[in-house]
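Lab notebook, bench 4. The sequencing result for the construct came back, and we need a structural model before the next group meeting so we can plan mutations. Quick request posted to the team channel:

Model the 3D structure of this chain.
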Amino acid sequence: MTAKYLLPCGCGRKLRVSTTQAGEEVPCTCGKILTVPNLSELSSLELAPSKSASRSGRKRPWTRRQGWILLGGIIAAVAIGISAFLSVTRPRLADVETLRPIYVWALWQDLRRGPDRNLSPSEQHFLELLGIRRVWQTALVVAAVGGVILMAAAYAMPAPQKSQRAGSGSSDPQLDARESDANPPRSEGRPRV
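Done. Here's the predicted structure in token form:
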């Protein structure tokens, strides 16, 4: 790959030239013909930035639409993650097959008494934990659905329009400012007196 240099013109623009163009004549956009210096003089010119570096240097700003989509995705992902954690770590009843026979007998006696019996403190604590987890699970599902709805609503928003005028294709802000000064906006309706 040949090196690219910036050849200055009298008009102030800088033309990209390569080492393969040494000694040739190149036209500037102003109409002036410039002679590319030989290789020894060409190396004293300013190096041109590579196209990949100039692309990575230009960052497109985030739009509100993209921000809302990201926010909805984060809300949904966090809610789903916490909900999954709560479902994995939820309190469980002991497996009857792993209990000692005396505990199985006590459990059987509790079941024989029926649902109207008084609950032990450990059973009350277990049921309270299940109730709290159920409330959190419901809230997290609502948050996840809200995040997905937010993403869908943001995706349905119209994309932002470019602010440049259709007739103006220049990237020079000074030129655009001069054009806007030369062509003031037209007022509609009656002229003011």
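The helical segments are 39-42, 51-57, 64-88, 101-113, 121-156, 173-182.
Will bring this to the meeting.
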